[in-house]
Please model this.
Amino acid sequence: MVMALASISAQATEQAIVDKYNKSCIACHASGAAGAPVTGNAEQWAPRMEKGMDVLVANVANGMNAMPPKGMCNDCSDDDFKALIEHMAMPK
Model:
């Protein structure tokens, strides 16, 4: 029973990140608009991931290049940003 609840909770968490991605990130990261690294493109994400998660989260919080501060997700926490970055950087 506990394993099933943990699985349901993990699925709900992943769906929440997908929903935030679809609301705030997809416009640029699905196509690479304005130089955004494309979701799932490991080659584009690798040099960014090498900077470390703290730097990436700070870049999102402060905005970078054409990306506005908080990347259009004003209700996202740092943990949300970490999960969103991991979601987008994961090779497809």
